[in-house]
Design a protein that fits this description.
about 220 residues
Length: about 220
């Protein structure tokens, strides 16, 4: 009886851990944007990372560290989960500690810190894509996936593809001609693409925690 209770507690802990990561991820863009508007009367910033240069800096850095340490503490089914979580932690901490280039002007050259920030962001999101596309979709050897598991796998893959598409569009926008940047900058495309990628990451982990489509 005791072993059964211990196993149930461990499974519950894993699910709550995943759901917590997902909830923090999905809420991050909203906390920053609404907090800056509500408490400091500030409009939408050009990117999620640019909240570092607002009074919401502590919130941005703090939440990235929280997400990072939750990923560091995550233990999945095999060593790949642990390594990917550790790499994602490193990316989260790097992008939190090294701020993006402060200038929001089109054609502004990236600073050294900004370049490191972008590298950290790439490592972070590539790790999350790997989680969604290859690790979350796994099933126990010899087992047949349940109908709910198959539905969850569909969501994991969709979230991964959304993150990939957002990263590609971000690269196309930031590396594209200045005329494109100038014509679209008022719509805050970088913020929205980053927010979409973050929401997809959060949703993937939320579903992995079986908050919905539970077996």
């Amino acid at each position: 009886m005791g072993n059964s209770e211990d196993k149930g507690t461990i499974i519950f802990s894993y699910l709550e851990h995943r759901k917590t990561i997902g909830l923090i991820g999905m809420s991050l863009p909203f906390i920053l944007a609404i907090g800056a508007w509500l408490f400091f009367n500030m409009g939408l910033q050009s990117s999620v990372s640019h909240y570092y240069y607002t009074p919401m800096r502590g919130v941005f850095v703090g939440l990235m560290f929280v997400i990072g340490f939750f990923l560091l503490a995550y233990r999945g089914y095999d060593r790949r989960d642990d390594i990917t979580g550790d790499i994602a932690f490193l990316g989260a901490v790097v992008l939190a500690l090294f701020p993006t280039t402060e200038s929001q002007l089109c054609g502004a050259s990236a600073t050294v810190a900004g370049t490191i920030h972008y590298a950290g962001a790439i490592v972070f999101f590539l790790s999350l894509i790997y989680f969604s596309l290859f690790l979350f979709t796994k099933s126990s050897p010899g087992s047949t996936p349940t109908p709910q598991k198959l539905k969850r796998n569909l969501i994991f893959r969709l979230c991964a593809y959304i993150m990939i598409a957002a990263i590609i569009l971000l690269a196309a926008y930031t590396l594209g001609p200045d005329s494109l940047c100038q014509s679209l900058s008022g719509y805050r495309p970088v913020f929205w693409l980053e927010a979409i990628a973050i929401l997809a990451f959060g949703m993937s982990w939320f579903v992995k925690g079986e908050a919905i489509l539970k077996d």
